[in-house]
Structures are given as C-alpha cells and as structure tokens.
C-alpha cells in the first residue's frame, strides 16, 4: 500500500496535499483501530500477537492495557533510530492514540459471557479493526511503529517483508504467551482475517497523492 511519507522529514510532511482530510481520516482510523482491539479483548477469546504481549505486561504491572500499548510503541520507535526510519505524522498519532482508544473501549464495554456472544463480539471487533486499519493506511501519513520496524528492517538489510513480519509477530506472540497473555481462537481469526479485509477496504478509502504534491514518491507501508 503506498505511503506518501515514507522516510520524509516530519517538517516537510505538512506540505502534503489535502492534509485536513488526511488528518480527519487518520483520527477516525486510529480511533476505530483501538476500539476494535478493545472489542476483541472483551470477547475473551484471544488477541493479536502484540496485544497478547500488552495484556500480559499489563497484568504483571498493574498498568492499563492501553498504557502498555503506548509505552511499547515508543520502545519500538527506539529501534527505528539504527534503521534510519523517519517518523510520520501518522506514526506519532498511532503511538499516542491507539492505546487511549483501547482503554476507552475497555472502560465502556464490559466482558461478555458465553461462546456465542464472545464470537459475535470477536467478529465485530475484527471487522471494525480491519476497516479502521484501512482508513488509517489510506490517509497515507506514515506507517505505525510496529510496521515501520518491519519495513525498516526490510530496507536496511534487504530481507523479505513477509518473513520479517512473521518472525517479529511469532516472537512477540511467544513472549506474550509465556507471560500469560490471552492466546486463543481470536488470535487465529485475527491472523487469517485482518489482511483480506484491509486489502478489500483499501480500494475504497485510500486518499490519492497528486503527482508532485508529496515530497517524495510513495513506497510501501502498512498500519500497526
């Protein structure tokens, strides 16, 4: 998926065309993304790899899951330094806002009881998360911290994106599981369902960049 701001200095990113619209869709996308994660967690059937880790750390520290998500995002951003990745407007917004949206959702939505209600909430959370992910990516304001790590490794050492992502997420999932994070049906459903839904929705929500309006040509990037 094209990103208008891959490795562009932050001060130059304010020159991108239709910035107000992009900022609006960025906010809506990140809000829905965090809310979708919150619904998936409330389903009680497992979580995505990074959220398995966040839940595990939150349980051991007493901090909220959203707070751990924010702190983890900034730890991941430290790894961008040797990879020579440039922060995007969307990168910083992602690091700060997704965790807040998660905590708000977890505060407003109580856990469900029973398998069928859990599955229904899981499907709703996955659909919201995937659509919001596409909206966020479609704003083309820079990759999220975790996907920037993946693409940064790819560009720095020429390693294929797919295996890099797989190694990172399997490693994170393994650590989260060993620390007591929730691995289950939701983990599998998320892994299989997120990609196809995002790909389909992206065709309708991406805001195109006019030739010459962005500082550099677009390159590949994904949301967190």
Automatic annotation (TrEMBL):
Alphabetical list of InterPro entries matching this protein: YczE/YyaS-like (IPR038750)
Species of origin: Brachybacterium rhamnosum
Pfam families for this protein: DUF6198 (PF19700)
Protein name, as recorded: YitT family protein
Membrane-spanning segments: 21-41, 61-80, 87-109, 115-136, 157-179, 185-205
Keywords attached to this entry: Membrane, Transmembrane, Transmembrane helix
Keyword Secreted: no
């Amino acid at each position: 998926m094209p990103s208008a701001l891959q490795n562009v200095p932050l001060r130059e990113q304010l020159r991108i065309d239709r910035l107000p619209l992009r900022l609006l869709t960025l906010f809506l996308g990140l809000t829905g993304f965090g809310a979708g994660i919150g619904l998936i967690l409330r389903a009680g059937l497992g979580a995505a790899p990074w959220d398995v880790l966040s839940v595990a750390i939150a349980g051991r520290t007493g901090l909220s899951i959203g707070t751990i998500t924010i702190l983890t995002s900034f730890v991941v951003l430290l790894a961008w330094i040797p990879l020579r990745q440039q922060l995007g407007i969307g990168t910083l917004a992602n690091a700060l806002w997704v965790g807040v949206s998660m905590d708000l959702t977890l505060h407003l939505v109580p856990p469900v009881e029973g398998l069928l209600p859990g599955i229904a909430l899981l499907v709703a959370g996955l659909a919201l998360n995937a659509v919001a992910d596409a909206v966020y990516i479609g704003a083309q304001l820079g990759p999220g911290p975790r996907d920037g790590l993946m693409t940064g490794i790819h560009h720095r050492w020429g390693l294929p994106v797919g295996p890099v992502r797989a190694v990172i997420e399997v490693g994170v999932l393994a650590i989260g599981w060993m620390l007591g994070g929730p691995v289950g049906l939701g983990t599998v459903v998320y892994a299989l369902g997120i990609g196809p839904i995002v790909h389909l929705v992206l065709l309708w929500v991406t805001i195109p960049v006019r030739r010459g309006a962005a500082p550099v040509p677009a390159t590949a990037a994904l949301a967190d």
